[in-house]
Task: structure prediction
Amino acid sequence: MILDIITSGLINGSVYALLAIGFSLIFGAARIVNLAHTAFYMVASYCIYYATHKLGVHPFLAMLVAILLVTLIGLICYKLFIDPIREHEAAVLIATIAVAMAMQEIMLLIFTGDFLSVPSLAKGYLNILGVKIAYQQLLTFGAALLILAGVWAVLMKTRLGLAVRSTAQDREVANLMGMNESRVAMVTMGISVGLAAFAGAVVVPLSVVNPHMWMHPLIMMMAVVVLGGLGSLKGSFVGAYILGLAESLVVFLIPMGAFLKGSVALSIMILVLLIRPEGLFGVAFEEER
Amino acid sequence: MKRSRFVVSILLVACLVMAIGMPAYAAKAIKIGVIGPMKFVQGKGHWNGATMAAEEINARGGLWVGKKKMKIELVKLDSNEFLSMTDATNAMELAVTRHKVDFLVGGFRTEAVLAMQDIAMDYKTIFIGCGAAHPELCTRVAKDYKRYKYFFRGTPFNSMYLVKVCFIHLATVGGIMKKVLGIPKIKVAIVGEKAVWVEPMVAVTKKYLPKLGMELVGTWRPSAVATDATAELSAVQRSGAHIVFTIFSSSVGITFARQAGELKVPAAMVGINVEAQKDGFYEATEGMGNYVMTMNTYARGVEANELTLRFVNSYIKRFGEVPTYTADTYSAIIYGLAPTIEEAGTLNADKIVAILENREYAVPSGIVGYMKDDQGRHLHDLKWGPGYLTSLGVQWQDGKLVAVWPNRWKASKEAPEITYKGIVPYKIAPWVIEKYKK
Result:
């Protein structure tokens, strides 16, 4: 059973990590709390559904198109709804939740509330010591690790990463040093939304496409980033796996209370915050800034 | 200037006359509020069924109400009850206060229908529930008849009977597995979504399984909208269950079936999976929902009585899919309300209740009769069993939803054998056979 709990926790955690990394990135770099993050994940899922089922496009190609399209939509949303009010954090919160609700209603209008699905990139499963793991789940796990490595490489090894880190440390000084802070924020937003779309593309074959599919992941993603420390990528990664494992533990140890798995994960977050209000990696994050 | 003012005044007066005149025109029609989650399949079923009924009645000129012939006018009310209870109660308030509907049909989630029922009762409006299964909706009628007598259950029969039918399906599939695979004692895992209607079903199942000669190996209660059930599936596999007894009415039914199919979980899925009752289920699970069995009301080519095929075929022709049970708003209006209104000769709710509660009438899924409790009090709940409503057991076989029950079913030793026209044999999934065949 321990192996079941670990594998299931790692898979769940990977899904949350994929979402939380993008969310953390834009918050860390531009102090934007984008509550529409998981709504972009939902839109990407619909794009893939439409491309595969209505246009007959190969799922892999559909994924690529969806990521590009959603990134573009994200950038447009940023320019129209976030950039003009960036200085007012509360207004950004409200604007992004409004964007998310608008996207939900648009999808509801176009696709109705029917539960839809998209094909897996890899069908079948692998049996590891008696635990069956779908290839698509393994793909999600691998993608989470790959994305984290990719984001880390971009931040640490490229000029863009340097600009993002500088802006995150001090926006005004970065501006004085000749960096176009607004442009850096926009590029970061593009990467962040692209990551959300990628998460949607990888995760959605395991799940059900519907206009409300962004809500539960949003809550869990918020819990992950708060637990890990706002803006800390490392924190988001670790937090995601802690909550993923917590959910698995609930399902295996309290089967009658399986529906409580989200609540238990959130309780763990509250517990950690009571002991360490800045989150698990909050201090390191503050020092960086 | 004066001329334009005059024109505006004329227009305003015309609008006023039209506004006053409209209710007078509308009064000639019988207003039926169709309430349900309209952006979801369940609500679409409510609306489609009601539309067919209204069109058929209006095509023959309407209903005789005393000496007047009145047409049916439907009012579409989106309860959005999957997402918001407040939306559901608001829609109900809107129906009775603004639209002033004469009758109501629909409702889906028990949690919402209980609240909507109270509003309908406040305004003494007859409400035929076409979706929620909890017995409480009807025990309220017996306990406080004066207040709740305006409520009738239209579909499905209450969850105690639902579970009874599920037990028959369990016993049937268990028997087949024992015979074909040589399993001495069938182990069952209960997986039911966290919802009010599931509570009594889980409780009864736990008690009843040993009587069926089966062993309960665990109960899992995922969220009704869970997007991942792999942890539950791993746990179910570890438990060694031969049958998973599913109790789902929401999206978790798709997630669970799809992931179980993807992982080739070696257990038969039997029970209720509302999503699996729909034509779109196979596509929604990307074909992984094959061999899932669920209780259902209708299936292509299956005939419970002489009304079934006419309804099912017309529905398929009109809407391109097999009706789900919420489309029984059709029966509620055309076979329930319409003849009762004509018999009463009035739209007076009390007079209609007095007639309807004593009627027994054929509908496409069987015969509707209303129960009384053990003290002889009216429940306005549906009678179940041979000669009344029985429902079907349907299974996905190679991408097609076929009916597999009742197949030579005897309700008791003395009862006659029942097999509906169009029934085919149940099939065990190949990966289950591979796992257990000796």
